[in-house]
Specification:
The structure is a homodimer of 644-residue chains.
Chain A lengths: L17 H9 L7 H14 L9 H18 L16 H11 L4 H21 L2 H12 L5 E4 L15 E5 L4 E5 L7 E4 L8 E10 L2 E11 L11 E5 L12 E5 L2 E4 L9 E2 L5 E2 L5 H10 L3 H25 L3 E4 L5 E3 L4 H31 L7 H31 L1 H5 L5 H8 L9 H13 L11 H16 L14 H4 L2 H28 L4 H7 L1 H25 L4 H21 L1 H6 L5 H18 L3 H6 L5 H4 L2 H4 L4
Parallel strand pairs in A: 1-5, 2-5
Antiparallel strand pairs in A: 2-3, 3-9, 4-8, 5-6, 7-8, 10-11, 12-13
Helix pairs in contact in A: 2-3, 2-4, 3-5, 4-8, 5-6, 5-8, 8-9, 8-10, 9-10, 9-18, 9-19, 9-21, 10-12, 10-13, 10-18, 13-18, 14-16, 16-18, 18-19, 19-21
Chain lengths: 644, 644
Amino acid sequence: VTATIPDHPTEQVADVSPAALADFLVGDAELDSTEARRRTREAVLDGGFGYVYGLPRDEYRDWVFGWLKQIGEHGMGSLGFPSEYGGEDDPAGAIASFETLAFGDLSLLVKTGVQFGLTGGAIHRLGTQRHHEEFLPKLARVELAGCFAMTELGHGSDVRSLETTATYDPATDEIVVDTPSQSARKDYIGNAGRHGNIAVVFAQLIVDDEKHGVHAVVVPIRDADGQVADGVTVIDDGEKMGLNGVDNGQLSFDSVRVPRNNLLDRFGTIGEDGHYSSSIDKASSRFFTMLGALVQGRVSVACGALSVAKSALTIAVRYGERRRQFESTEGKETLLMDYLTHQRRLLPGIARAYALHSALRRLRNRYVGSLDAEPGSEEVRTVEGLAAGLKAYSTWNTTETVQTCRESCGGEGYLAVNRLPALKSDSDVFTTFEGDNTVLMQLLVKGLLSDYKEQFEDLDLLDIVRYGLGRASDTLLESVPFVNRGMDRDEETLRDRDTYLKSFRWREDHVTGNLARRFKKRIDDGADPLDALIDCQDHVVRLGQVHIERLVLEQFAEDVDSCGDEDLRAVLDLLWQLYAVERTWVDRGWFLEHGHFSAATSKALGALLNTLCQQLRPHALTLVDAFEIPDALLAAPIATDAER
Amino acid sequence: VTATIPDHPTEQVADVSPAALADFLVGDAELDSTEARRRTREAVLDGGFGYVYGLPRDEYRDWVFGWLKQIGEHGMGSLGFPSEYGGEDDPAGAIASFETLAFGDLSLLVKTGVQFGLTGGAIHRLGTQRHHEEFLPKLARVELAGCFAMTELGHGSDVRSLETTATYDPATDEIVVDTPSQSARKDYIGNAGRHGNIAVVFAQLIVDDEKHGVHAVVVPIRDADGQVADGVTVIDDGEKMGLNGVDNGQLSFDSVRVPRNNLLDRFGTIGEDGHYSSSIDKASSRFFTMLGALVQGRVSVACGALSVAKSALTIAVRYGERRRQFESTEGKETLLMDYLTHQRRLLPGIARAYALHSALRRLRNRYVGSLDAEPGSEEVRTVEGLAAGLKAYSTWNTTETVQTCRESCGGEGYLAVNRLPALKSDSDVFTTFEGDNTVLMQLLVKGLLSDYKEQFEDLDLLDIVRYGLGRASDTLLESVPFVNRGMDRDEETLRDRDTYLKSFRWREDHVTGNLARRFKKRIDDGADPLDALIDCQDHVVRLGQVHIERLVLEQFAEDVDSCGDEDLRAVLDLLWQLYAVERTWVDRGWFLEHGHFSAATSKALGALLNTLCQQLRPHALTLVDAFEIPDALLAAPIATDAER
């Protein structure tokens, strides 16, 4: 079978430059916010916001806080704020800027995210004009440092069950914020440990003894001199695996009173008469609408995580291109990059980075477009699902890629001076924050399968079944080119766009049908819907993954096909093939289980995977240099010819 | 197909206690060195050698050095040394003690390994009586701190190509040690940065202008006051991803002179007449014999890595048994451990830990037995291969397990106070040090496939082919119970010992045959053997993995089957099944490709995997508590009810 694949391809497929590939990655300069990227890169380089390590914790935190203020002065953090309140009305630019910052110190990235993205974003998207006026300009200039106090010790993923209360007291026209239990302490809150002045606190709003669900209230927690406010208790979270330039902490509240106007009341308000009102009747719809307004954080983390993977790949490939080990036939020792095992470790990671680049560019643009749509509308909910799924997919990919790159650099990769330890330790929590990945995949799938529009109040799980079964049975009847049940495929088919585009879609539909059947069986056996769902949880997460992977594959294909330069397209096409083949090969157990291709084809895919790595190997350096990460930001002597 | 597997098993299979399981893990108390473990545990607990974090680097290093001295005073580090030189002639106890230390601070573990295992071990195993007399007692009491200076910046895996030279000067009867280039600097050397007094330096020995290959020479590098010796340059490696209590550094030598007697000359000596002689004629045989004498380091790392995985699993399972999230049907929120996705994350890791425990116990005993065998003998080389393969398998498993445990604990898992960050960062380099795992797997396979005894000088690669082809064709004709090509298997078969024992062996033989064929094809096409081997590298590593996995499966089965307690055996049998099924399921792509079972069987395995997790779920806490890691060493508030 392997005979259909040429052995030992060594010549370059085409002559391409990093600059040409970089242009491809940019695509449309305006849509890509090239100007915001350039400004951010300059700010980072001029300000020296690169990698630092080995500082004592408080010093590191203050250092990063100083950088944050400079970012504020440059106007980079508030790009997305309304122009009348210190911003530039440019959410696309804000995300592009975040992506660029992610090439530098990741504590600064997260501090920026907390200040401008989460705190500023919550006030922007959940507040009304008076909040914008009062807080956004000060947050933009970092005259106020802000906390986003959502997660509690006992409730992270399950935001709806937060315990903190915000009770309206008509006697004083104030809102009283309380932490009723240990597990209600706000935890892992960035900016809480040392610098934060205000916190956007998510709490159960109680007005007239009636609960109205989770709302956000602005609570001052520390004055300009760093004095913690009365009734507020701060406990520093202390040292973490990484991101030690960010001062995470616990916040708890003992009858802390704030003016009624501090309620961020875009979706629910307390009138001057002391009564609650909302434009959204159902509490659960209101809750989902509020959360939906905060989706920019997940979009940003998905994009930032990709930047981290690009940094790690650049360092590892450059090292692999200079480090030699064991003698070769020419008397010179062999470059690490010339070993097949090394190629198999690094090149699929590069392909995944390019593929994700295409998908995340679209997510960013679609998110920005959705800001004009009605809150809670179908488009907004679709984007929310995509952001959840791509955040999970991208951050898991980064964890895996950085780990592989660390191991590929051996002992050098373990030294802090070579940056990979920080890339690993700092980004490790990306799979957890802004939503645990496993939970996010389930969020995506619930969105995919249920018709929120009609039953926003309670997800009717049986509808998942009906929808899923219907959809799957429709598509399973379609003919799919890969299905061959025993026949070998020729190399042309195995390299063909259509083979994988249809296969990935077929897989998604099949997984949908399987999930639906399994779920229905549990229900038919008398299981409670929630228990049944827990029982199918592995299938739910799986569906999220294959859905996202299908989108990534399609969107990368679109970009490759629209590339006008023939040489460039030849290389990109190989990269696309590598993405498609590697993802298929990794999941070949499933494809074989479902009779989608023969054992012979599966083996041929394994051989093709090696061939593709060998074909792309001459371009490895070009492919990572196209990410255009400045040496000063890579900050790894093994990648930049610097002395360590 | 899934209908053959019972849904929703909830009841406990049997009533077992952590103590009964712990007894099973001990097995034979004497062979298990229970006494050495107890002494070590006491020393660790009494000395407070637990987890520390957040100390400035130099303070942390000195703290760990203080601990090392206490370990020395307790006699724990020199257990394996000859009794006449401060030890107890107990290498099994030394490894058991290392395993126990691995529950505590990992910087101390590595510092201990460098001092007693590597430096002491090299002097013990490569030196002769005068070296033992002079150095071992002082190393045992830590009056001298030692470095093991093998790895160079340019040569880690390829020790035979080290550049450092040790030239005998007959005029002064001294050996002159030199670092001829930048890439020849000794690097990542533990104890070099701050505390080391002597270094065992591996260098190309030159006598009478003739090169005799790599030998080890003891070189003083720093006096008792910390003054670095003339001609020696030390550059601190600075901060690392983890293990920051160990002072790694670079060492280079500019005509550093030491007495002739400082050559560790068990396998090659310079006589008083100034001529070189050795009992082993061939330079390459001598080299391999010397390296083979140092195998205890790999055995120890394999065992220590498992302890780290056990710690992480204990923390994650205990947290999963107390943390609730999202409402369940009973009105109470659901325990994390009751989620199927959580069970799928953690229970296979527990099964792997138990399986590896069996295999590593045998490796330890077999290694100790091999110390009585002739250096360079077949038994010694077999143990060397096993140690290489199990070191790679165990440390990769630890990296994966700790990562999964970190993610399973969400935000709590990212806080240093909960220990998982240190377990991850400290153990991450285990896949690299004591030999890069990818290289070690190749070492194992070369040993498996070639007949070293007859052609020790140069590995005849064509013999690999002949041997491999012959072996594979023999066994492929055997009937294997799993092979069914289309038929579904009943649950009994899918849970049967024999099904997997034969399948894993069949897989190994098949991979051997494939490798041989692929290699032969390259050779037949005129490829240079070295290029051909690089081209088959992925198959070589793969063969190493499936070989080790087969051994682990068999050895765990033996232990389970020999368990006399029926209840206990019932639980252990499930654990064995989980190991067998998960490993098969993860690799089902390969099994399906090779027609070893049908698609229906493959799906049934996936369902069985869930069922096994659900069946073992009630025992999760018992299974980790059986590791008997003291709370003080776990040192994670989320696992020990302590306040953070």
